[in-house]
Amino acid sequence: MLRKLVVVGVGLIGGSFALALKAAGAVDHVVGVGRRETTLERARALGIIDAIGALEASTLSDADLVLVSVPVAQTEKVLAALAPHLRATTLVTDAGSTKHDVVAAARAALGTGIRQFVPGHPIAGTEHSGPEAAFAELFRGRNVVLTPLEENSAQDVARVRRAWENCGARVREIGVTEHDRILAAVSHLPHLLAYALVDHVTGRPGGERFISFAAGGFRDFTRIASSHSEMWRDICMANRIGLIEELDGYTVILQELRAILERGDALALQAVFERAREARNHWLEQSGT
């Protein structure tokens, strides 16, 4: 049971975390912190938070857990601001989609207080943002990754794990390097491609006419291009080395497909489609989605 939770960034992820814990009866009091007063007021009106706070002692000194849910490039600034006001028993975690940069930012901002920071990443979301997008069921049955540091105690990692489990999430622990390598392939690359496809189609002369004929396939493929642009800019830049490697690999496959089309090899094209179809169906069966 968390007596007091502080959420820095009460949008989709931070807001859903607060709502999920409230729905589970796992938190008494939630305080929201953010850049815009209007956003915080909206979050309070929606029942996501109980009070509006700031990165200062009155908000942080008696907190049990602080969730930092901001674009990853803002992490160090936020952690540096809250560091002087944390009591020794307060834990801090994050929701950042990249971990090497976040951990480096935490070490720079927290110093010896790094033991209180348990890095995390909920692998869940929608293309929507802001407190209006938050809902309590977002993490139910979804993966949340923790990348514990050597300074973290097993007890503190377990406390953060329990918070996410109270949200209905499946919690897994992996290393920082492995996390960033995997997410470059299955999350960051798809977002980059979705943005690129929309820009490719709509940016050409007569693009509006092209888009007027788009239907389900284009909508489904590009859904995530409606995601928060600042957040995804920061993610892609933070994990750009891994993302470039994945982009290079994807480019090779596109070149192979181009060669298949050039020689008119229908059987080779179908073989690629069948492999991908079977792999995707197997993933859906295994994940239960």
Explain this structure to me?
- α4 (75-82) runs parallel beside α5 (100-110) and α7 (176-202) packs across α11.
- The chain starts with a strand and ends with a helix.
- The mean pLDDT is 96.
- The chain is 53% helix and 13% strand.
- The chain has 12 helices and 9 strands.
- The protein folds into 2 domains: 2-175, Rossmann fold, CATH 3.40.50.720; 178-287, 6-phosphogluconate dehydrogenase C-terminal like domain (6-phosphogluconate dehydrogenase C-terminal fold).
- The protein has 289 residues and is of the alpha/beta class.
- The protein is elongated and about 70 Å long.
Instruction: State the secondary-structure class.
Output: alpha/beta
> What is the CATH level 1 assignment of the largest domain?
Alpha Beta
Terminal-residue CA separation: 30 Å
The main β sheet shows up as: 6 strands, parallel
Tell me, rounded to a whole number, the average pLDDT. Answer: 96
Helix and strand succession?
EHEHEHEHEHEEEHEHHHHHH
Within the CATH hierarchy, at the fold level, what is the topology of the largest domain? Rossmann fold
Question: In the residues, how many domains can be counted?
Answer: 2
Name the poorly predicted regions.
none
Beta-strand fraction estimate: 5-15%
Residue share in helix: 40-55%
Radius of gyration: 21 Å
- Enumerate how many helices there are, as a single number: 12
Counted beta strands: 9
Shape estimate? elongated
What is the spatial order of strands in the main beta sheet? 3-2-1-4-5-6
Secondary-structure arrangement, i.e. CATH architecture of the largest domain:
3-Layer(aba) Sandwich
Q: CATH homologous superfamily of the largest domain, by name?
A: NAD(P)-binding Rossmann-like Domain
